[in-house]
Amino acid sequence: MSRPPSAAQRRVIEGADPVTGRLRGTPAQLAALVKHGLAFRHPRPPHDHFLTPAGHRIRQAAPEESAHRPAPDGGVFVARAGGDGEPAADGVARPREVHSAWQGLLELRRMTNPDGAVDRPCGWERTHLVRAAALALEAAGHRPASGDADGYRVRATPQPEAVAVYAPDTASLAACAATLERAGWQPGEYTEPRTRARYLLASPRRV
To answer: Where is the stretch described as Disordered (predicted)?
Structure first.
């Protein structure tokens, strides 16, 4: 786009659903975002508006406190990638939140994949690799690493469209690979040359 979004448009972008990228705003605000290539209007009813990859980049570039501002429904869902500093994944509401987020992601696949396929990652997942892979794992019942507790860890890699997934043992790593494959990812097992640690390199499947 030729100029940065206005403050009002940025608020709409930052308030997008953290999983699906669905937008809420006035018709004029949404039309302006579409005009500037930051959003698209889905062709099928109810014709909701969603962030484009360019819109997602602006949302990711926002200050951290803005990116995690509570959504209009009262909360923000964050997939657990595993690691120190993450909020605990325990709680009676967490399984319901994870299930809801996963169903929302499947719906986004249905709406945005050209053939409506839900067994293949969509554009949002390709721009949010770590979050997408972590959500697939947590939705299948895998536990993320947290504090002293062992579990999976999803990390970004220098390779385009690929994440690294670590697990505490061989069986857990194999289980993560099976889950990601069912979720439409292509996982391969590798060994780090220096540490000899086994890990998965996983990429979203295209066909």
So the answer is: 1-23
